[in-house]
Write a structure and sequence with these properties.
The two termini are 30 Å apart. The strands form three sheets. A six-stranded parallel beta sheet has the order 1-4-3-2-5-6, with helices on both faces. It has a five-stranded antiparallel beta sheet with strand order 9-13-10-11-12. Strands 7-8 form a two-stranded antiparallel ribbon. It is globular and about 55 Å long. 34% of the residues lie in helices and 25% in strands. It is α/β, with parallel strands linked by helices and 252 residues long. The protein has two domains: 153 residues, 3-Layer(aba) Sandwich (Rossmann fold), CATH 3.40.50.620; 59 residues, no CATH class.
């Protein structure tokens, strides 16, 4: 899988290749995201398109709702590894700057046709894009007809909560589970245990930058390292105490 930057002036990698594209934060790459990715890769297999994910260096809620945002479910390296596991061929990373945010939705989509030869767009049912998110699904579909671009909008995926309610699977819903310490429910929706990226935590300490991944509530936890070793850890005052000598911790 190749990882590219939106800031690259052009993308010679896509010359002569037709692409199918999906755009989003994909924080956690949960069951709902996986239905969308599965749709994308199946279309690519059937039509011999090259699969492309356009995602952001930070999930958009971290930027747009920074005041009440609890943290990322997955670090960027974790997201990239998951994309590769799911069969994505190229990922284009976007820094959500003011300049990028000012682009209209249809101009952005047209740039995908021009820059990476997009022939198909696969998105969630409620996808919108462009300046202030003003370009809606209806407008995207209208633009796509005129531009002769195939579009697919994937319906939401739901789950049953412990109290019998039906909830749409979303990254924000899973964040609440992690903050409640409900790791078994989070693992069910993520299709894997919630995992802290300690390599990224060390990098943040070394570079004196913020660690952006979500931490569970204060308490003592039994976790598993990447090798499967059992490690007891303590989170106190919102910080992981005595950083273990491993690359990741799975909360089980």
């Amino acid at each position: 899988m190749q990882v590219l930057s939106w800031n690259d002036s052009d993308f010679p990698q896509f010359l002569g290749r037709e692409t199918a594209v999906t755009i989003g934060s994909f924080d956690g790459l949960h069951k709902g995201h996986r239905v969308l990715i599965d749709k994308l890769t199946k279309i690519c297999a059937e039509k011999h398109f090259h699969s492309v994910v356009i995602t952001f260096t930070r999930p958009l809620p971290a930027i747009k709702h920074a005041g009440d945002y609890a943290g990322d479910i997955s670090s960027l390296p974790q997201r990239l590894a998951l994309f590769e596991q799911l069969g994505i061929e190229s990922v284009i990373l976007v820094d959500f700057t003011d300049k990028f945010a000012a682009v209209s939705g249809t101009d952005f989509l047209a740039s995908l046709v021009q820059r990476i030869n997009m022939k198909c767009l696969v998105e969630g049912f409620d996808f919108h894009c462009g300046y202030k998110g003003k370009t809606t699904r209806k407008e995207i579909e209208s633009w796509a007809v005129a531009a002769q671009i195939e579009t697919h909008f994937v319906p939401p995926v739901y789950c049953k909560t412990k109290d019998g309610k039906t909830e749409r699977i979303s990254s924000s819903f899973i964040r609440h589970m992690i903050l409640d310490g409900d790791f078994s429910a989070a693992a069910e929706l993520l299709t894997r245990p919630y995992e802290l990226d300690l390599a990224e935590m060390r990098r943040a300490v070394t570079t004196n930058s913020a660690f952006t991944q979500l931490l569970p509530p204060d308490g003592s936890y039994r976790t598993l390292s990447e090798s499967g070793s059992s490690i007891s850890v303590v989170i106190k005052a919102g910080n992981l105490q005595n950083l273990p000598n491993c690359q990741s911790l799975k909360f089980v």
